[in-house]
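Q: Structure for this?
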Amino acid sequence: MSRSSRLYILVAFAFSVVAAACSSGSAPAPASSTAPAGGSASASAADKEWTTPNKNAAATRYSGLGEITADNVKNLKVAWSFSTGVLRGHEGEPLVVGSTMYLQTPFPNIVYALDLSKEGAPIKWKYVPKQEAAVIPIACCDTVARGVVFSNGKIFMNQLDTNTVALDAETGKELWKVKQGDYKQGQTITSAPMVIKDKVISGISGGEFGVRGFVTANDVNTGKQVWRMYSTGPEAEVGFPGSVETWKGDEWKRGGGTTWGWYSYDPELDLFYYGTGNPGSWNPDQRPGDNKYSMTIFARNPDTGKAAWAYQKTPHDAWDYDGINENVLADLNIGGQTRKVLVNFDRNGFAYVLDRKTGELLKADPFVFTNWAKSIDLKTGKPVEDPEKRTSASKNTKDICPSAMGGKNQQPVAFSPRTGLFYVPSNNLCMDYEGVEVKYQAGQPYVGAIVVSKAGPGGHRGEFLAWDPVAGKKVWGIKEPLSAWGGALATAGDVVFYGTMEGWLKAVNAKTGDVLWKFKTPSGIIGNPMTYVGPDGKQYVAVLSGIGGWSGIGVAADMSLEDESAGLGAIGAFKDLAQFSNQGGVLTVFALP
Amino acid sequence: MSRSGFLVVCLALACPGLVSGQAPRDGQRPATPRGVVAPFRVCADPENMPFSNRKMEGLENRIAAVLAQDFGGSPSYVWWGQRQGFIRNTMNATLEEGRCDVVMGVPVGYDLVHVTAPYYRSTYVFVYKRGRAPIRSLDDPALKTLKIGVHLLGNDYENPPPVHELGKRHIVDNVMGFSTFYSAENPPSAIVDAVASGKIDVAIVWGPVGGYYAARQKTPLQVTPIPSAPGDLPFAFDIAMGVKKGNDALHARVQQAMTRHRGEIDQILKDFNVPLLERKASTAR
């Protein structure tokens, strides 16, 4: 405890020197506790590695590495590549610790350790979990997994069948395994865990099936559950008051509010942050009330699980604006004052800036074309809705923007303290939400909404944009024909990377948005680029390709293109995807010659 | 158990004669020359009584056995939860060895498969204790206060049709959801058990589920079809079998077998207490 916090102070100091050049904003230091990797360059030891999914506890996806710059990125070449042997959607990113790279595949969730110290990065070990195939149909939006996390000699992973597993990072030996839920009850896990101090924090998926969301802390050494807190229900189980009264009867028991997104942590405030998903399986008409704490940003104490505050973004959701997107921690100058904030680009189209200590809402601006609400009232925190765009079982609602797939989905943003800008892979999608189509499930006919997603104004389906969080304005944007469904990476070389559903990895000037370089990887990219320094001292950029996920489910699962509402509306929006991209998980690693 | 065993033995004795006797005459079985056993590969849910389960206790298991007999053998199964991705992962599976050809129960209009003519029509029903004032429609004022149990199936707007119509009538507070993720704690009978135990006053369930479990309670229960009022969604559906799209030969073959074994199929539906309405495929999409 005291050792790791001292290390944190050192790292924080080093980081603040780097960040001092930047006037408009900086990120709190990454709480990395990994050993230095050897090698040269001016970057800190922590920057040479990538040990946690979003690079650091603040989830900035910003690397201090600067060998690859806006000037030389045009020379970037493939250094090596690796087939994961799995076909479905590859979200998440590899990690690099010392001279080993770790990556996790979609179901069956194989974990590979690759030896970077040897030519061609051979497999050091491989962990293949045993999971029943019956778990596959429970996963709503492809059998994705968003990666592993490293801490103190261990690799932690979540499996689709809800097992959290600790592996020996050196040997791949399974150290412990804990079942968090029951897939037979609709529960799965697709998100990456996060390690905070001596606890590993995991979420749960399954909002489509009325799973009552929760977050669990397990002891890193034994796997023993330390606490579990729910998104809905009595104060003792939520760690915060005010949920039960926003549901009718005991419907909070099927309240949804699943927790399948990314987690961030502020070691100074000792709070961690995450979002909860849409409310349970009832139609909106049948669950009157705000349905707290679905669609909520939670700030919790990692030792007790108790919440310091909770802010609900979309009360009484009627659009499936599943509010799980990541909360990036930064220190921004708001109204002439440096504020410790978190920034959240929500599925509902608004970019929220909150004081991360108190939960006070400071700003909320639409970052994509948004018409379901005109604005967010900063005093009440509630959206000012357009009643015409609220869906109901008894009417057809046309042209709601953004679509259920969100202004941004799971693909994480990056924040560069050098430019003070957020880099946001976004969707430009709208939807029609119509009554009623009779289908068949679990032995009985049912009625489903026809959600047809389609391109928003302009006809492009995505945009990679730079966002000024202080002004609440877009600085530049690169329109993408398909959605930008992969995450962003910002670097000290002032180059930003992102992938496209066609399979392009693009390098962009962080200041101007000029595309400086691109490479077509073997399959569509829905994963997140990352960067590291190899044992040879060179900076590398790596990305997983492998189309799938919600947007790519049509190709991943070879679904019929005749039904536009199939794949929860994804087929209508991405009918032409198969022209651009085929299945197949491949890691591609780049370096300067 | 012993009853179903008896039926299978009966069929085993009777059907080979039927197959060999009729095949040459109708001459419409190109896929199965006389004496050759054609595979009858069924896509089914391993845990979805009263329709199917791994122990072969469901009505669809029984009907599959009858049709497979007509094909000259016994059915083989590909098991998969009947949820999103069911057809994709069974009938349309990537690997041939993981595939199956026939789904035993789909509503007419289900466009992921090539549907046959319907073999039964059922409806959503009320299940309540016999002796209470009868409930005949969703507009019965009693429903505003009675405790009502319904099945929850999936995401927003994916509830059973009568549940939507309850919402339209502002019947919300007294409705209780039952999960269709079945387990030892939550068996498929749970919603009907709850009527018998008095935990709820009335269950709104799909006919075959309500009929089967109501008939197997110690407490006498009433099963009443729910009529859909003008402007309501349909509550009654024609149920057919589904064959892989494009396999017209198999479709014709299954259709013929269904016709030939009409009587046995009807008997199985009766054994399972399926509430039946007159089939009218013309009303289906």
